[in-house]
Amino acid sequence: MKGIAVEIQALIRREAIPAGGRLPTEHALARRFGVGRPAVREAIQALKALGVVESRPRRGLRVLPFRPESHLDAMIPRIATEEDRADLYELRCLLEPSVLRLAAARARGTDLDALERPLRAPFPAGRAAVREGLARDLAFHEALWRLAGNRFVWSLRGLLLRYFAGLEKRAVSAASVRRANAQHLAVVRALRSRDVERAVKLLERNLRPFSPRRRSS
User: Fold this and answer.
1) How many structural domains is the chain composed of?
2) DSSP state of 61
3) For a tag on the chain, would you pick the N or C end, based on fewer CB atoms within 10 A?
4) pLDDT for 98-144, tens place per residue?
5) H-helix or E-strand containing 53?
6) Does a structural domain hold residue 214?
C-alpha cells in the first residue's frame, strides 16, 4: 500500500493541509484513489508509523507537524555493526565543524555565557565526576547544534550526539571527562575571540578520541 501512502502525502502537499488540518475520511479517500477502504486503512497505518498523520475518535484523520527527528531517531535501534558506528562517526566529524561555524555566526555574547557557565563549575569528587562530565559533554555539543539555528541539523542530534554519548558511558575515566571539559572551554574562548578556525581545530581534537574501528575486509 506504499502507493496509496504516497498519494495521501501528495494530497497533503497539493492542498496545503496544515498541521492539525483534517484529511478526508477513509471512505472519501478510497473513492478518490479508486481503491478499497482496507487499502486506505493500511496506508494510513503506515503514515501513522511515520508520524505524518494521527486519528482520534470523533476528530477524524489529522496531519501532524513535521518533525524530522522522529524519522532519524527511528534509525538508532537498527545501528548494529562496527561499520555502522564507524560511518556515523565519520558523518559526525564531517558535520560538526560546519555546525560550529554556523553557531559562531549566529551566537550572541549571552549565548556564549550560557555555554561557558556550566563548564566553569567545579567537578564533584569520585565517580560522580564521570557522570557530571558526561552530562556536560552532551549538553555542550547539543548547545552548539541548537545555536546553529537549523532545524534539520538539530534533528540529527539523537543520531549523531546522543547515540555516541550512550556508547561513551561504557568506558570513560574522570581524567578523560575533565580533559574534554577543558577542551570545550577552549572552544568557547576561541569563539569569544572570533577565532573560528581555532575553535574548529579544537573541536576536531575533542572528537578524535572516540573513533569506532572498521573491520578490515
Assistant:
1) 2
2) E
3) C
4) 999 999 999 999 999 999 999 999 999 888 999 899 999 999 999 99
5) strand 53-56
6) no
